[in-house]
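Batch 3, record 17
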Amino acid sequence: MSAVSCTPNVGRPRAFDMDAALEKALEVFWRKGYDGTSLSDLTEAMGINKPSLYAAFGNKEQLFLKAIELYESRPCSFFLPALEKPTAYQVAEHMLHGAAMNMADSSHPQGCVVVQGALSCSEAAASVKEALINRRVEGEQKLKVRFDQAKIDGDLPPDTDTGVLARYLLTVLQGMAIQANNGACSEQLRQVAQMTLQAFPRAG
Amino acid sequence: MSAVSCTPNVGRPRAFDMDAALEKALEVFWRKGYDGTSLSDLTEAMGINKPSLYAAFGNKEQLFLKAIELYESRPCSFFLPALEKPTAYQVAEHMLHGAAMNMADSSHPQGCVVVQGALSCSEAAASVKEALINRRVEGEQKLKVRFDQAKIDGDLPPDTDTGVLARYLLTVLQGMAIQANNGACSEQLRQVAQMTLQAFPRAG
DNA sequence: AGATATATGTACTTATCGGTAAATAACCCT
DNA sequence: AGGGTTATTTACCGATAAGTACATATATCT
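Prediction for the assembled complex:
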């Protein structure tokens, strides 16, 4: 079953693939940001007309939020899977290397749509900016919780400030999104990842 | 003499302060980004009408570029002054602490306009995006050159990869801009700065 | 004082913005 | 086959985007 479509068995069937269209919308929002994306950009990329877009996804804002959901649930997403690695160091390692690999991948826009989708934006975009901030802060909180567990597990020194460590790691990851936008390649991001890992506290 | 005005002694004198108006424009671009800022936003904040804006600053794009110049030449700017500190460590220290202090300062928008002014943007903003990328990459290059000198001075280990070190530091600084947008306060950014400095290579 | 030169306010232009009304088309069910 | 339901197409809406024409106001220079 599709993640987003919920096709009834009455009426004219939808002529386009909602998931494929959402993927196209994500690509546009990722590249141009919420304010920089027009409905014409979206309908052109998605291959549908505006009424189809509105009927299927609500409006621009709801489409954006659905695209973000898709972004975070994609196979190449690295954040949540990394949390399940057995040690704090491996969590950090997988996040940093995943980011290095993914953010400079030229098969899609550079960076991270959660970082750059609505960073500085118009008042019309205030609510989606808020939604993205919440996602980033929640990610940081999840990482802190994971590091708290690591302390219990004994793979972080007992005096570790897990809040600072999580914030530091997120700062580097978010900075890597900017670096990818600057044109940094995966190898260059990997070097940053490696330098970050060298400073990472090891098992006590 | 003013940085931007160049008043002739003929004709009706300008009724507003160009520098003050440019400061207002910077504030709006900083908070809303290039795409998110309308001319109405600008004229309202600057206290002038559109024809005055166009006569004085050219157009939206040129106004933005002048605002960025102002941003980088302000007294509270920390990047270029930090380059003149006597050792590589002190350069990093001043940049990181300057960023922690400045980016969360609530007397102006959070973060850094060079990072967030046109990160993901429309095609209309492509040239200003390019200009900002150039500024960021040039800053990184300047930092690398400074670290090369530090190696000669002997306050960085001789095997230091200065390019990676500069990129790592810029990654953290740019990440701190996102953190500030997330709502992080100066103290939280300072903790990130401190953690970054702990990993910084010390003299030989 | 008058000519010249620049700035200002009002009102306007064209294009595009996000969003929708209404008619038509394509399907399922009875 | 025909009714019910949903999707698609075309054409449109009011609002706002960036940018400007033009008349008027205010200064200096001669």
